Amino acid sequence: QVQLQESGPGLVKPSQTLSLTCTVSGGSIRTIFYYWNWIRQPPGKGLEWMGTIGYGGTTYYNPSLKSRTSISRDTSKNQFTLQLSSVTPEDTAVYYCARSRGLKIVPAPTRTDFDSWGQGTQVTVSS
């Protein structure tokens, strides 16, 4: 059974770049048909899909975040990473990594859109 675990700093200053890593165990991020996603949930709001990287390395982003978002992977470590630049307090959220079978471009997803989730990590943007 695949497991995902987010890691990264819990506090980021405004204007800096937020960087998170998702470590995957129990399955390869190169397994065909699977996509590896970043999703966030600001306090009091719903889930927001940020972007994904596929089994072949292709990336797709939420248009509302595309100019600030970059997703990459390290297949030797079975990890994929999120970088979000020029953060503001509005980027404060719980950030999740999740797996989908097939490409899921769903700006406002539900948990059932993805078959495996990390536990989530709180990131606060504050000076």
Residues in helix, %: under 10%
Shape: globular
Main beta-sheet annotation = 7 strands, mixed
Strand share of the residues?
A: over 45%
Which residue ranges are poorly predicted, with pLDDT under 50 across at least 5 consecutive positions? none
DSSP summary, beta strand count: 11
What is the chain-wise order of helices and strands?
EEEEEEEEEEE
Number of helices: 0
Class from secondary-structure proportions: mainly beta
Report the mean per-residue pLDDT as an integer.
Answer: 97
| Radius of gyration (Å) | 13 Å
Descriptive overview:
With 127 residues, the protein is mostly beta strands. It has strands at 3-7, 11-12, 18-25, 34-41, 48-54, 59-61, 69-74, 79-84, 93-101, 116-117, 121-125. The strands form 2 sheets. Strands 2, 4, 5, 6, 9, 10 and 11 form a 7-stranded mixed beta sheet that branches. Strand 7 (69-74) and strand 8 form a beta hairpin.
Key features of this structure:
127 residues, mainly beta, seven-stranded mixed β-sheet, four-stranded antiparallel β-sheet, 0% helix
Topology:
Blueprint: E1 3-7, E2 11-12, E3 18-25, E4 34-41, E5 48-54, E6 59-61, E7 69-74, E8 79-84, E9 93-101, E10 116-117, E11 121-125
Parallel strand pairs: 2-11
Antiparallel strand pairs: 1-3, 3-8, 4-5, 4-9, 5-6, 7-8, 9-10, 9-11
Q: Quick recap of the structure?
A:
The chain is mainly beta and about 130 residues long. The protein has no helices and 11 strands. The strands form 2 sheets. Strands 2, 4, 5, 6, 9, 10 and 11 form a 7-stranded mixed beta sheet that branches. It has a 4-stranded antiparallel beta sheet with strand order 1-3-8-7, with no helix packed on it.
